[in-house]
From TrEMBL:
<feature type="transmembrane region" description="Helical">
    <location>
        <begin position="12"/>
        <end position="32"/>
    </location>
</feature>
<keyword id="KW-0472">Membrane</keyword>
<keyword id="KW-1133">Transmembrane helix</keyword>
<feature type="transmembrane region" description="Helical">
    <location>
        <begin position="52"/>
        <end position="73"/>
    </location>
</feature>
<keyword id="KW-1003">Cell membrane</keyword>
<dbReference type="InterPro" id="IPR036259">
    <property type="entry name" value="MFS_trans_sf"/>
</dbReference>
<dbReference type="Pfam" id="PF07690">
    <property type="entry name" value="MFS_1"/>
</dbReference>
<dbReference type="InterPro" id="IPR020846">
    <property type="entry name" value="MFS_dom"/>
</dbReference>
<keyword id="KW-0812">Transmembrane</keyword>
<dbReference type="GO" id="GO:0005886">
    <property type="term" value="C:plasma membrane"/>
</dbReference>
<feature type="transmembrane region" description="Helical">
    <location>
        <begin position="173"/>
        <end position="194"/>
    </location>
</feature>
<feature type="transmembrane region" description="Helical">
    <location>
        <begin position="372"/>
        <end position="388"/>
    </location>
</feature>
<feature type="domain" description="Major facilitator superfamily (MFS) profile">
    <location>
        <begin position="14"/>
        <end position="416"/>
    </location>
</feature>
<feature type="transmembrane region" description="Helical">
    <location>
        <begin position="394"/>
        <end position="413"/>
    </location>
</feature>
<feature type="transmembrane region" description="Helical">
    <location>
        <begin position="328"/>
        <end position="351"/>
    </location>
</feature>
<keyword id="KW-0813">Transport</keyword>
<dbReference type="InterPro" id="IPR011701">
    <property type="entry name" value="MFS"/>
</dbReference>
Length: 430
């Protein structure tokens, strides 16, 4: 008879399970990557859609359902455990590639993206929560860097591979067979190898006492769902600043998903070259998070987020101003750098401030607002592009990104415990 090993927090103590969850999240990201290059071109060439707003309905459907599902994923993870929610997300993913392959009209594509949004909300939220559970408070930024790097690295690789397959074998079915294999593999790994992590969160919660971050006391009492929603959305400065920055970040990503391939195609470049440009943004974003997540554990969160939002704004302005493959390469890579500075750092901020007893729900609320950005980007980008053109839509996103960065600079306080304590000591001795 063997005795169970005692639970421990930390990346090294849970390396095997953490690494497995990184691989699972790569499969989650690949489900999005299968669409990135292909669907905008499919809309124009096979379904003959006109009007950017109508074309972006699939991004809107994806964003709304993913945002709403994120909220429920956090609540259900606290109630039922992380693993059941993860498995449910993969079951919902299975029909998505088949619907895209067989879609006789655009309504099928929208329906597939509704299911994809539910899949992403359940699976991605849960892998985030599980990694935060495992690593504890010291290495949240590093953990989120690995998580998001795997997910968006897979988006990039799959987008490029889907573009290659589309150029060689046609827009359907070859690119979407990638997604079908990802869904089957993700389900199998989650059922047979992933372990529940809710007890790790309870272990961390048991060790918590009332703490102070940057001079601010944080209550650890059990909160209702309404209280968690209010704090993360509006009343708590760091949580709500992170939520709005996340929304704007994904507004930019939603815009890139729907409009960038069409902008690049206006020059007559091949589908393969469009696929390379589309993949560069999440590729740099994904790889960069391996660095920026760890940096946020050393340098703190606030300034990295502010600089990242302003970098995104500059990249979007450049992208809207140029029209060659070389300059678009530079602009999309710069956009990836700015996003890498922001993405894992925002999640780490939520983990810093939210107590383990309500952290999963706070992550769910944050991801609700963040992924609402897909829908907002589809609406704003589609309407502005229809009225004033593709480049005007990108300029609008640049202006919104500047405003978001200024909100973070003004309203957010530093949340990383070590950095916040150092700042408090410096302020007390000055």
């Amino acid at each position: 008879m063997t005795t169970a090993k005692p639970l421990r927090l930390g990346l090294r103590a849970n390396l095997a399970q953490f690494s497995l969850l990184v691989a699972v999240n790569a499969l989650v990201g690949g489900m999005v990557g299968q669409e990135q290059t292909v669907l905008p071109l499919l809309a124009e060439r096979e379904f003959h859609l006109v009007g950017y707003t109508f074309l972006l309905t699939y991004v809107f459907a994806f964003g709304v359902t993913k945002a709403a599902t994120n909220y429920f994923a956090g609540t259900w993870s606290d109630r039922f455990g992380r693993k059941p929610v993860l498995i449910a997300g993969w079951l919902i993913a299975l029909p998505v590639p088949l619907m895209l392959i067989w879609a006789p009209n655009w309504g099928w594509v929208i329906a597939a993206n509704v299911l994809l949004g539910v899949n992403q909300g359940l699976t991605w939220s849960t892998t985030v929560i599980m990694k935060i559970d495992l690593v504890g408070p010291r290495q949240r930024g590093t953990a989120m860097g690995f998580n998001e790097a795997a997910g968006y690295g897979a988006v990039a690789v799959t987008a490029a591979l889907a573009g290659y397959l589309a150029a060689r074998y046609g827009l359907r079915p070859a690119p979407f067979l990638l997604g079908l294999s990802y869904a089957a593999l993700g389900l199998g790994v989650s059922v047979f190898f992933v372990r529940e992590t809710r007890e790790h969160a309870r272990l961390e919660a048991a060790s918590h006492a009332t703490s102070t971050v940057s001079g601010r006391a944080h209550t650890h009492a059990e909160l209702s769902n309404r209280q968690v929603f209010a704090r993360t959305s509006v009343s708590e400065p760091a949580l709500s600043s992170a939520s709005q920055a996340g929304l704007v970040n994904n507004l930019n990503f939603g815009l890139s998903w729907g409009l960038f391939p069409l902008l690049f195609a206006t020059t007559g470049m091949s589908v393969g070259h469009v696929g390379v440009l589309v993949a560069l943004y999440p590729a740099v974003w994904g790889a960069g998070q391996l660095v920026t997540g760890a940096l946020s554990d050393r340098w703190g969160r606030k300034h990295l987020i502010t600089a990242g939002m302003l970098t995104q704004a500059g990249a979007l302005a450049l992208l809207a101003s140029v029209d060659t493959f070389t300059w678009w390469t530079i602009a999309t890579m710069l956009l990836g750098v700015g996003t890498a500075m922001v993405y894992p750092t925002l999640l780490a901020t939520i983990g810093d401030v939210a107590h383990p007893s309500w952290r999963a729900r706070a992550v769910g609320v944050y991801r609700l607002w963040r992924d609402s950005g897909y829908a907002v980007g589809a609406l704003v980008g589609g309407i502005v592009a229809d009225v004033w053109g593709l480049r005007s839509a990108i300029w609008a996103a640049a202006a919104i990104s500047v405003a978001s960065g200024l909100v973070v600079a003004y309203r957010m306080y530093e949340t990383h415990p070590a950095t916040a304590r150092q700042q408090t000591r410096e302020e007390s001795t000055s």
